[in-house]
Amino acid sequence: MKQTPRTRKFGETIREIVASILQEDIADPRLRLVTVTAVHAAGDLSVATVYVTAHGDEERYAEVLAGLASAKGRIRSLLGARLHARVTPELRFEIDDSVDEGFRIVEALKTVPPSLLADERAGEDESVESPGFGSEDDADSDGDPSREESGA
Question: What's the CATH number for 5-96?
């Protein structure tokens, strides 16, 4: 779906309202600690895809989607009452896997071999000085140029 300023604003409004509904009005235990991360609205505003995330594995995601499917009618009804739009969009729920992808990337970066990092550092040009405010002669032993050692 192509996002325009109108659909982005509409999606953000829906995201805030659906998050509030899930937190305050839906008592389904399957929907505890579910975070609404984004909403993409269709150009005609008739369909909104709601992206959610929750802590857990694939089994937890299936549980969350089942809970959202069972509460979809109530969520849409409450959304319509709060949205003040001519038409309440059809809601489609999907798991936002960007958080999981971010964790996978962080874990992958933790396993980078130190030898690879050392090779990259060795290839850098060491003759280039880092931008600073003074030379090393101007600084005392802790590198702070504002504290010059006195000769006394």
Answer: 3.30.300.20
